[in-house]
Amino acid sequence: MGFPQNFLWGGATAANQCEGAYNVDGRGLSSVDTIPFGPDRMKVARGEMKMLECDCDHTYPAHEAIDMYHRYKEDIRLFGEMGFKCYRLSIAWTRILPEGDDDEPNEAGLAFYEDLFRECHKYGIEPLVTIDHFDTPVALIKKYGGWKSPKMIDAYLKYCRAIFTRYKDLVKYWITFNEINMLLHMSYMGAGIIFEPGEDKIQIKYQAAHHELLASAQAVKMAHEIIPGCMVGCMLAAGQFYPYTCAPEDIWDGLDKDRDNYFFIDVQARGAYPVWARKRMERAGVAIVMTEDDEKTLREGTVDFVAFSYYNSRCTSADPDILEKHARPGNAVFKSVVNPYLESSEWGWQIDPLGLRITMNTLYDRYQKPLFVVENGLGANDTIGEDGKIHDPYRIDFMRRHIKAMDDAITLDGIPVMGYTAWGCIDLVSASTGEMKKRYGMIYVDKDNEGRGSLERMKKDSFYWYKKVIATNGEDLSDI
């Protein structure tokens, strides 16, 4: 028992958080390039503040990030040294189609990723590619209003055709959209949506969701036609909502909030809108523009596997006093109350390894498709010790406990799991805060929140620990 022999151990990054070189070699401006560091970050990310250009009053972490664009060979060599079997990354849409819907793709962008994928294969690393990881072309936001418009579907499929055709012999694992459910919470980051005064936000969100779901279904079908034998998955930001008490009202509130996350995956994995979603939209006065052809498209474009990120579970209550008095600190994307049974990270993210096993069982019970844990990690303020090394036993402990929970889900519960790619295997810009000091990596990058630093890479203790875990296929989780 234990992890299967073909288990895909590895790490994960996103183009907008690591590549930098945002205006190099013909790359167009993307939504994530315009999300600033600082107090305006969440307002822009939620679509509440319009920022389609970069100004001199803000700093934009994605512009340089960790400059992986120029250092990818060094970084992939380090991933190879760790023993990665898989590297999850994303393609920047605007490197391929700078305006988002160009008739001809940008050769410099195509060549960059081709070289990167070949570098991965040199070390025996399978690329797992996210097609759209919070990466709406600004030109299409100006032209169509982002995913508010069904015209985005054709633009997305034009982009998909370009990359499927070019990389059909190099990539066999794909994800259509990163954390697709984030559209409901960070609408600009997730779908390039900016809300204008007087607009019906709920209507816009669900119509945009429908457009993304149609695009995903058609991309799955296209990938299977162009790349026979490939596997295409969906992805959600997962984490069970626990009821704060056993009051039936709290139980229902947790179930209802979980449905916000499962809504997208229900459609992508099953091929149709669930009855509860239709009733919920009806009660909210949401009337999605949907044709019979749309329903046929969704039925025919179901995914091959369900990928998900898991950082923590959440806790909720139907009692507004509890929600106010026990609210999780910080500007959290998912509103949650503090679970008194769990410890928390420096950023207030509660640590719940058993929650991973619970989430995996829930997802498999619901969909009966193979799972892929494509993000899991601990954001921490790592420092270089007096010996010139980075000792991060807290990260090792976090990963050990979560890998053990994943092992239990596989061994004791029989859940089929394709792989595990630890988030931020190399330090990168935090999506939620825009910080560098909130580090996830097993490889340290010399850069601070103000953008200062040499960008030099350094192995942390967790680098050597994870190398041993991979070498033993998850059997040896002891300290280094």
UniProtKB/TrEMBL annotation:
Pfam families: Glyco_hydro_1 (PF00232). One of its GO terms (biological process) is carbohydrate catabolic process. InterPro entries: GH, GH_1_N_CS, Glyco_hydro_1, Glyco_hydro_1_AS. It comes from the Bacteria. GO terms for cellular component: cytosol. GO terms for molecular function: 6-phospho-beta-glucosidase activity. Gene3D superfamilies: Glycosidases. The keyword Metal-binding does not apply. This is 6-phospho-beta-glucosidase. NCBIfam families: PRK09593.1 (NF007158), PRK09852.1 (NF007356). The active site is at E375 (nucleophile).
